[in-house]
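Notes, Module 5: Reading structure tokens.

Key idea: the token line is not a picture. It is a compressed description, and you learn to read it the same way you learned to read a sequence, by spotting repeated patterns. We will look at two proteins. The first is printed below with its tokens.
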Amino acid sequence: MKASAFGYARATSVVNALELLVAHGDKAKVLSGGQSLMPAMNLRLISPELIVDIGEIAELRGIGVRGDILSIGALTRHVDLLRSSEVAAHAPLLKEAVAQVAHPAIRNRGTLGGSLAHADPASELPACMVALNATIIVRGQAGERRIAAEDFFTGIYETALSVQELLISVELPIARKNSRHFFHEFARRRGDYGIVGLAAQAIVEGGVFADLRMAFFAVGDRPVLARAAKKLINVALTPAVLLGAATALGEELDPQQDHQASASMRRHLAKVLLKRCASALLGRPDLNAGRLV
């Protein structure tokens, strides 16, 4: 199957792209890397009348550090994130996660902004943005909006981005002293969609968590910032404390069943990841001993 007929416009600037989006409203779709948009069009899951190609807008590319903020342009490709010394130094969680995204052909074309705007609940990068407490910057003709990542994702393939706005960049707080990260996903094969995954960022002081953000993916209609992680902050971690947090996580999550896994399987795997995460971040293998109930 191939896409239905559509018009094409190559935007020359952010202003020009916004003019096109305002003129055509929900009949237009933005093309950045095209790794999600084009398959959806070919399957006729969506049939836009106009494609607005923003791929040549240079101002939407680039990675830089300003003070204590790491700024990444929306058109920055996955492969650029992997190769960036700034990302490796200041947001190592993001680099580790990007290496798990699909396959090299996808990473060579896919963009950060495209992944975030697509908002696939099984995607790695939206969860990373939530774990890293990112700010997502969008622009419309009325001006710029700054949206916390945990508020940006609103449902399956749904975000706070309006059809007349463009995702411009993301801002990440640079990694603080004593910060540690964890990333893991269960998938049938490397590069497949994750069955359950976890992106986490923590501050460890004196052998305990001073801060801990756990963002699970593929367990709901959007990345889930686990409330259960709060039970692990500023306490001496024991197997009993960890089990209590895992139990709370199981009660908190409401995963869906699909061809890959049942809801109960996803809930169990999320508990396993919580345990592995806490053990790894604290360097406490004793916490990961035995079976997690």
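Here is the second protein, with the sequence above and the tokens below, as before.
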Amino acid sequence: MIRVALAGHRGRTGSALAPALAAAPGVDYVGGVGSADDLETLLRDRRPQVLVDFTSPANALSNALAAVAAGAAPVVGTSGLTPAAVDRLEAACGRAGVGGVVAPNFAIGAVLMMHLAELAAPFFEAAEVIEMHHAGKADAPSGTALATARRLAARRAARFDHNDPRTVTMEHTRGGEEGGVAIHSVRLPGIVADQEVVFGLPGQTLTIAHRTTSRESYAPGVLLAIRRVVADRRFYRGLDSLLGLEA
């Protein structure tokens, strides 16, 4: 049995993950911790082997480092961590001899969406990402959208073509831009987490889309990560390696 604790268990994603962890075979869910709770006490008293974190960018790194210091492997689904923060966490895991995962998205379908888009990137001149999330999401663009744009740009020798309007009647209507890939963020009630990658060539487009209907979609990816970091004691950036995906 793998002892697992959850930071952010009362949040939107955490409240869906907690029952999945409690019901998962081979997992001993030892409890959750919120912003008003004492994480170090939980780590000391419950001694989890893995700390899953779905909190906020302001707390995720310190939570993960506290887990590493206690000998627990961090599995971080909180988006918004900087590359420097991920580097720091990877180094800490290496020194402590524990595994870890930081992933922009734990939905397996979303990981496959990014992988398929990466395969298509060299064959198209232009690409745009449209990401749609619930109205309460704190960051924009999403970590998944930003990671997607960077991966697409890295697959090409030249930048994607990015159309800039000649006349701007309202600022920011073309969205943000990363490596020539435009990113548009939609925030509405009724949406969980959706993303489309739209590629264009003269006379044709290709759309690769992923829809999330429930936050239960994150559970299979989180459970996969939990089992692998304990077994392998490696640090993973994303689920691609865990799924055997190669661009």
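Summary for the second protein:
- The CA atoms of residues 154 and 179 lie 8 Å apart.
- The helical segments are 14-23, 39-46, 57-69, 83-96, 108-120, 143-154, 219-232, 240-243.
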